[in-house]
Every structure is written in structure tokens, then in C-alpha cells.
Amino acid sequence: MTGTSTDQATMTAILDPMPGYQRLALIKGGTLTDIFVHDMSDKTPAYGGVFMARIAALFPQHNRLQLNLGEMGMASMRVSRPSQFSSGQLIPVTVQAEPREQKPAQMRYGIIRQSRFAILHAVPNTTGQLHLSQRLKACLGDHGDDGLSELCAVLRDMAEAHACQITLRQTAASEPGDIVLNVIKAQLATIKPISAAADRMREHGMVAAPPALLSMAEQYVSAEHITIDDDGRSWADADIDQQIDQALSPYLSLPDGGGIHISSPPGAAVIDGDSAASRLAPEALAMAMITPLADHIRLRRISGAIVVDFPRLNHGGRDRIHQAMMTAFADDPLRPILHGWTKGGLYTLERRHQLRPLGDMLNRDSAPAKYAAIMALRHLWQQTRNTGRNIGSDGLPPPLRLTQAAQDWLNGDGVAIRDAIALDVPLLLP
């Protein structure tokens, strides 16, 4: 199999492995594209988590079920055949979209696990099949089979043997078949214990946490492009915190002057170009907006309807702008639908919801005590984890100094993070 994915060739990952609050940054060409966090204090159903859910209500007219997850509240699930379910039934489900804007988490029936090469979906009482993703089909249409048929034959047998739906991704066409096969075998091995645990459960609740961030990183980049950043230097060298600060700001400055106002309230998001002091012509300014606009829609996790106002753009440049937008969003994993221009000259697109907005996930403004506590913990943990710096004669680092609010959070809602770090490094915690 030949052909190289541009996205795979240029993307790298940096993993901050602090126990209890791990962070993963994906970077493409020096630009931060995604941030993922594993926060042990978070009580929100997270993407990829597996639950045994009890059906609380059926809405057959909407092909929808209301589910009770236990401690993590209620969720919703769309189904094609509501008649196969009954009220009170206990079923395995996987989080496919996190809660947002007073809407519950969205689930999918069965157990789902993913890698760079495939999506595995185990559904109770169904036979296994092999499917090819739309992008892979398009790739094969352009380049031919290229040796993939032999791999598909093996995977088809594996799907039937394990009663699991396997959807092969486009990236499978760019790697040797034995590598793809071994990764998918490892995926299948992770599903088996989850299925067994689900079968043993008699009440609703979590069966399996979302995949570890290292596994998440491997969905986007190969292992040699993942940096485990124990001391924070790689994170700092990549200016990740500065780029996060930009993504939390409502205004994004452009290198050649001008900027972008980004507003994403409940409902439609509005992106307004601002020529400001830019000397660029309207079409050139619009072109300069497109790449940072696409990057920040992805990084900020903006979803739903999105309206873009390119300033003072005339009709003549609209086709070129649309083509440039299609190119800029080609690598977005959520594959936004680009509707194009309205009669009033606004550009519209739609991006499906999967993850909570970046600001909601980091909640710096709404939970400053939590943010301060985690920052202090990280600073001490990074100093002591590998180097032994600041360790006294008693073998302990200096005590953690926190405000009263941060200390209260750490001893309350943040106790899981506190205890996770204490197991790894002998910190003097309040």
C-alpha cells in the first residue's frame, strides 16, 4: 500500500502526563489544532466513555431514547428502530457527543473503540461485518486497490469471528498491511474485557472510561511523533499555553493586519472579519482569514451553524473563497458541511457537535480555584517527577502553597486529582 497522508506527515503530539489531569496537544506545522484533557475531577460523560444505561423513556415518533447513566445523569440516543428497545432495559452505550447548552450527552448503542486505521463497533446480538469509510472508498477510486484486498479479506473474517463491525479508515491505505492488522487486533483485545464487564453489570453506571490520551494521540499520529513531556519543556517550546490563550479570546489578530471577531453563544456562531489597519484588498484579506478561521473553529470546538462575514468582499471573489474554504476544512475530522454564500453575502457552514467547547472544558473563568490548584500541582510535579529538584533532606519537596479557595477545591471536588499525584510523587499536599 502506498500514498502518504499529508495530515499524518505534518502532525505531532505532546502529552503532559501529570496524574489526574493529563493534557494532549496536537500540533500541525507549529499551529495548535486540538487540546484534549483527562480530568479525574470531571463528572461529565466524556467522549468515548462506555456505560450501561437504563432506558428511562422512549420517543418512537422521534426515533429517540432517554437514558439514565446513574451518577452522571441522563443522556439521549437516536435509534433507527425504537421497537427493539423497551422501557427499563439495560443496554451498553458509548458517548458520541458530550453535553452542551443544556442538552444531554448523545450516545450510540454498543461499544465503540477507534484507532488511526479503524473504528470498531460491537453491538449486542449482531453479526460482524467489514465496512470501508467514505474517504477510503474515494482514495481507492483514485488510486486503485493497491494491495488492500488481502487485508480486507483477513479483517472480514475477524469481524465475523468477533461479531464486531469494523470500519476501515483512509489511513489504512498508507501503511503496511501487517501494521494495520496488528493495531486492529489490539483494538479488538480492548473490547473483549469491556464487553465482559458490561455483561456482569446489573445496574446502570460507567463500564469503561474514555481511552487514555496516549491512545487518543495514536489515532492522529504515529508513535514516533508523540512526545511524553514530563518536565513541561516541550509544551513551553511549542507555545501551547499562549495558543490556548488566543483560542479563549474573542478576537484573533491576523499577521498582515486586521483580525477576526469570534462569537459562539448558544445557537449559531458568528465570525466577523475586521479589516482594521490592514492594507490588504478585500479578497486578499478574506484569503488571509481562512486558515486561522478554520484552525480556530476546530481548536475552539465550535459546532452547529456557523456564519462568516468576510468584510467588503464583492461577488467576483466568492468562488475562489469557497474553494479555499473547502481546502482549509479538508482535514477537519468532523467534516463540516460548507453551504456557501447566502443572498446577503454571508458564508455559512455547519459542523457537528462532538466535544464540549474549549472554554467549557478548561473552565478557567468559571472555576478559577480549580485552575490555580492544578497549575500549582503541575509546577511541583514537573519539578520533582524526574529530576529530584527541590527535594529536602527528608525526601520531600516543599509544601504546596495555595490560596484558601484553591485548597478547598483540592480537598473537595479535586480530591481524585490530589490523590492521583500523591501516589506518584511524595508531595506535601494540604
Number of domains in the coordinates?
A: 4
Largest sheet: 6 strands, mixed
Q: Provide the low-confidence segments as ranges.
A: 1-9
> What is the SS-derived class?
alpha+beta
Strand content: 25-35%
Number of helical stretches of at least 4 residues: 13
Widest β-sheet, arrangement of strands: 15-16-17-18-20-19
| Spatial separation of the terminal alpha carbons | 56 Å
Overall shape: it is globular
Q: Would you count the extended β strands for me?
A: 20
Average predicted local confidence, pLDDT:
90
Fraction of residues in helices? 25-40%
The rounded Rg comes to: 23 Å
Keyword list:
alpha+beta, six-stranded mixed β-sheet, 4 domains, single chain, disordered N terminus, five-stranded mixed beta barrel, 430 residues
Structure description:
- There is one protein chain.
- Helix 3 packs parallel to helix 4 and helix 8 (282-299) packs parallel to helix 9.
- The strands form four sheets. A six-stranded mixed beta sheet has the order 15-16-17-18-20-19, covered by helices on one side.
- Residues 1-9 have low confidence and may be disordered.
- The N and C termini lie far apart (56 Å).
- The protein has 430 residues and is of the alpha+beta class.
- It is built from 13 helices and 20 strands.
- It folds into four domains: 10-46 and 210-248, no CATH class; 49-208, no CATH class; 249-351; 367-383 and 397-429, no CATH class.
- 34% of the residues are buried.
- It is globular, with a radius of gyration of 23 Å.
- Helix content is 33%, strand content 25%.
- Strand 4 (50-59) and strand 5 (64-68) form a beta hairpin.
